[in-house]
Specification:
Elements: H1 2-11, E1 24-25, H2 35-41, H3 51-68, E2 74-79, H4 82-93, E3 99-104, H5 107-118, E4 122-127, H6 136-146, E5 151-155, E6 157-158, E7 163-164, H7 168-177, E8 180-184, H8 196-199, E9 203-205, E10 218-223, H9 225-232, H10 245-252, H11 264-280, H12 282-302, E11 318-322, H13 330-341, E12 343-344, E13 346-347, E14 356-360, H14 368-384, H15 393-408
Parallel strand pairs: 1-12, 3-4, 3-5, 5-8, 8-9
Antiparallel strand pairs: 2-10, 6-7, 9-10, 11-14, 13-14
Helix pairs in contact: 2-11, 3-11, 6-7, 11-12, 12-14, 12-15, 13-14, 14-15
The protein binds pyridoxal-5'-phosphate (PLP).
The site of pyridoxal-5'-phosphate has 13 residues, from helix 4.
Length: 409
């Protein structure tokens, strides 16, 4: 009786419509989607077996292949965010007692090891220093000691540190020892080349809400023929029925067998983001991320915020910027940016929680106007939070990068 009357009372409360404040999302994800992506998500919902919808699904897979750089038949998007792609890759490829080698120099690499262990695999982690990539030699010696390795996993764009992981040598090692190579491209996809076929990567997954600039809720994934064969050769079925990739493949492609209801509206959004990506041109899009990433890094350095990653390993689309001298209230500055300027950036993870801020320059947001807006806001707020700087130096350094670009063009 009491429970029922409580329920009645709350049901009669009046709630205001959802009206989120306007934000510029310059953290490590999500990024602001292109307005056309938001409009596409509002299009009428279709049934997941409607031929009109299956055509959209097929085009989405085709466009994903282009952005991944692959002709892999098994290329689709699983429901859930980036971690769903991580979970799907690992739970399909790994069986209990498989040997799984992970290179981890950041938060996300460590998560691959954790999920691998939950799949029952025997996990060995080669841990690297945060701010550095994993050395292929360290993986090679670990693999030599282990003997038979089922899979190696590595993060291409480590969002906790801003480090770009070179893949070629690790791919060569995986091929040499007959191991599958699983690559986390959650932050990378749409902002830099992935080269799945050229490098011979076996399982690569991503998300939709970072450099692709679509809505959160899907995880694009692609599997090589070798990876598909490994799943087909499993001794036991994939533990997750929902994320069983071979079953999902039978829905995305003929015979289009029902598996679960497709996230129709999110697929519209993804289709639109991919279409815009290809219309821009992949090389132009990667160059746009690189230019704006360089401008942000130059501007930040000029006002005392140096990246955690060395310049030779710095990613274009995310930078972990060291909190400058004199600033102790790292959360307070982030809150002021959000409340006064409407700009979201990220905090640090793990040991770097109070040592870095993470800035993302992703997808639709990778534009000069946004970089200058963020740098101006930093220049206004940093002195208030205890860091002395030369006013205007950050914006000027960024402008220099843009000027050099147009002079060269
Ligand atoms: C963001 C991110 C993830 C997790 O993605 P979600 O969409 O938050 O689930 C995994 N790996 C990397 C490298 C990421 O940057």
């Amino acid at each position: 009786m009491t429970a029922a009357s409580t329920a009645t009372a709350s049901a009669s409360a009046v709630y205001a419509p959802v009206e989120p404040p306007e934000r510029l999302l310059m953290g490590p994800g999500p990024s602001n989607p292109h307005p056309a992506v938001l409009r596409a998500a509002a299009a009428p919902v279709l049934g997941h077996l409607d031929p009109a919808y299956l055509a959209i699904l097929g085009e989405t897979a085709d466009m994903l292949r282009q952005v991944f750089g692959t002709s892999n038949a098994l290329t689709l998007a699983v429901p859930g965010t980036g971690f769903s792609g991580m979970e799907a890759s690992l739970c399909n490829l790994l069986e209990p007692d498989d040997t799984f080698l992970v290179g981890a120099a950041g938060f996300f690499g460590a998560k691959m090891a954790e999920i691998g262990a939950r799949c029952g695999a025997n996990v060995t982690t080669v841990a690297g220093e945060w701010g550095q990539p994993i050395s292929a030699d360290a993986l090679r010696s670990a693999a030599r000691e282990l003997g038979q390795v089922k899979a190696i996993a590595i993060v291409l764009a480590e969002t906790s540190t801003g480090v770009r992981q070179p893949l070629a040598e690790i791919a060569a090692l995986a091929h040499e020892i007959g191991a599958l190579l699983v690559v986390d491209a959650v932050t990378a996809l749409g902002g830099m080349p992935i080269l799945v076929d050229e490098l011979g990567l076996d399982a690569v997954y991503s998300c939709t809400q970072k450099c692709l600039g679509a809505l959160p809720g899907l995880a694009p994934i692609t599997l090589s023929a070798r990876a598909v064969q490994a799943i087909e050769a499993r001794k036991q079925p994939v533990q997750s029925w929902y994320l069983d990739l071979l079953a999902l493949q039978r829905y995305w492609n003929p015979p289009h067998a029902y598996h679960h209801t497709s996230n129709v509206s999110l697929v519209y959004a993804l289709h639109t983001a991919l279409r815009l990506t290809l219309a821009e041109g992949l090389d132009a899009r990667y160059a746009r991320h690189a230019l704006n990433g360089t401008a942000l890094q130059a501007g930040a350095a000029a006002i005392g915020m140096l990246p955690l990653a060395g310049p030779e390993h710095q990613l274009p689309m995310v930078a972990a910027l060291r909190v400058p001298d004199g600033v102790s209230d790292v959360v307070g500055l982030r809150r002021a940016l959000l409340e006064e300027d409407g700009i979201e950036i990220g905090g640090g993870l793990g040991d770097y929680a109070s040592k870095v801020w993470r800035v993302g320059i992703m997808g639709y947001n990778a534009e000069r106007r946004n970089i200058l807006r963020l740098l101006s806001a930093f220049e206004r707020l940093l002195p208030r939070f205890g860091h002395t700087l030369t006013a205007g130096a950050g914006v000027a350094a960024a402008e220099n990068v843009y000027a050099g670009q147009s002079a060269g063009a």
